[in-house]
Amino acid sequence: MLIRGAPDTGGSVRVSVVIVNWNGRHHLEACLGSLFQQTMAGYEVILVDNGSHDGSAAYVAASFPQVRLVNLAENMGFATGNNRGIEQACGEYIVTLNNDTRVAPDWLETLVDVADRYPQAGMVGCRICGFDDSDVIDSLGLKICSDGMSRGSFRNRRWSSLRLEEVEEILLPSACAALYKRAMLDETGYFDDDFFAYAEDTDLGLRGRLAGWDAVLATEAVVYHKYSQTAGRLSSFKVRLVERNHFWMVLKTFPLRFVIALPVTTTVRWFEQWRSIRRKQGTGAEALQQGSAWPMILATLQGAGEALAGSPGMLRKRRYIMRRRKVTSQALSALLQRYHLSFRELLDQVTPTGGD
């Protein structure tokens, strides 16, 4: 691991923005350019390059010399990439940001203001909307299914049709663009390196919740996101990791009754996924755009197999987490019910209604 740029030792940095990049040079001008047009001062930008071979690191070094650049020898994934960046960060607030985004000029100032006003909130989410159509919602925090699958709340809804307060409580934020307080991370640990990518933010968010921290949404902190530009919207790679990681996350963090029911709830979701494919609806239609659904089915089964193989290690992590939790299973169950996502909503078969 090679690091370019010295950390701030004078105490002037309150916020560290961490960006993980893998072959995303074509995204970086918009992302980094918007970051250096913010209305606030006192922040640093750390870009972790996951062994890109498209010249990303050289481009950043030449075009954005104020960025602290962490060069990894290989692609270590979103989870570990963020962790390497957090380890180098100086700020009391850690902000994760996807490379395929651009941010509003007052994004960071608004995010920090909300974090300052809500001391018990260990996590602050953003209004994440479409890169090309800012009225289309990508995520206003995450909602979650009974088997642990999650997606952005209000996904594909129109922002202009919603009536939300400046600050809303959420279950947890999407790490596409989220603020995490270092005080929480010191207590919970960082992202789980074993996850590589996908569901690592759900896992971290629920660990934060179990540790007694709240999560809020700063609705006026606006991020524009291209969505799934690194791994593809529905690639076999993504399907395998999502299938594996949601299982691991449930084993680590969910109340025991959800863990016991996991084989049943996962089977019900698979049935709904198969129906969506047969009906060519939602994500089922997206799977058929690959030419055949079989690569996605095989990736799902491979992910489930990897999940089972890794279960003993995740159960050891569960024991560690549960011994230190400050929130009861009943309280967490109530949160999961409040922010419940149906399988039909997950698969884009219905438009979600209601608020967080």
Describe this structure in words.
With 356 residues, the protein is α/β, with parallel strands linked by helices. 43% of the residues lie in helices and 20% in strands. Among the domains are: 99 residues, Spore Coat Polysaccharide Biosynthesis Protein SpsA, Chain A, CATH 3.90.550; 94 residues, no CATH class. The protein has 13 helices and 13 strands. Helix 2 links the parallel strand 3 and strand 4. Helix 6 runs parallel beside helix 7, helix 7 runs parallel beside helix 10 and helix 8 packs across helix 9. The N and C termini lie far apart (41 Å). The C terminus is likely disordered. This is Glycosyl transferase family 2. It comes from Desulfurispirillum indicum (strain ATCC BAA-1389 / DSM 22839 / S5). It holds the Pfam family Glycos_transf_2. GO terms for molecular function: glycosyltransferase activity.
Topology (elements, then pairings):
Blueprint: E1 2-4, E2 15-21, H1 25-35, E3 43-50, H2 56-63, E4 68-72, H3 77-88, E5 93-98, E6 101-103, H4 107-117, E7 121-130, E8 137-139, E9 142-144, E10 150-152, E11 167-169, E12 177-181, H5 182-188, H6 200-210, E13 214-225, H7 236-253, H8 256-279, H9 282-288, H10 294-309, H11 311-324, H12 329-338, H13 343-346
Parallel strand pairs: 2-3, 2-5, 3-4, 7-13
Antiparallel strand pairs: 1-4, 5-12, 6-13, 7-8, 7-12, 9-10, 11-13
Helix pairs in contact: 6-7, 7-10, 7-11, 8-9
